[in-house]
């Protein structure tokens, strides 16, 4: 059965590029426009990995990750931050919130897929 990945980004083009790469690798994809929108998509179904932007309207990625980690069903779901942010302080903030990896935009789809394959839940 295909694994499900949630992509959270306020850029439709980024969601599209990431979605095409993931679907091409055989994953199911759920999309969220921002942290708040993405939380409404987490309804108890199994999500094997989350890829989230940091800078988004309504709810930023760090706040979103903290909210996800507070939900029993998703406490152990790995999170990759996909962002233009490359400062160490932001990376530490993301790790403290529960992010397992940090991929800086612009990204190579192959590099993102390698990170996904390493982290995706069995």
UniProtKB/TrEMBL annotation:
Keyword Lyase tagged: no
SUPFAM superfamilies linked to this entry: CheY-like
Membrane-spanning residues: none
InterPro entries: Bact_response_regulator (IPR050595), CheY-like_superfamily (IPR011006), Sig_transdc_resp-reg_receiver (IPR001789)
Entry coiled-coil feature ranges: none
Keyword annotations of the record: Phosphoprotein
Residues where 4-aspartylphosphate is found: 53
Domain of life: Bacteria
Limits of the Response regulatory domain: 4-120
UniProt cross-references to PROSITE patterns, sorted A to Z: RESPONSE_REGULATORY
Record keyword Phosphoprotein present: yes
SMART domains found in the cross-reference section: REC
Signal sequence segment: none
PANTHER family: CHEMOTAXIS TWO-COMPONENT RESPONSE REGULATOR, STRESS RESPONSE REGULATOR PROTEIN 1
Protein name from the UniProt record: Two-component system chemotaxis response regulator CheY
Species for this entry: Variovorax ginsengisoli
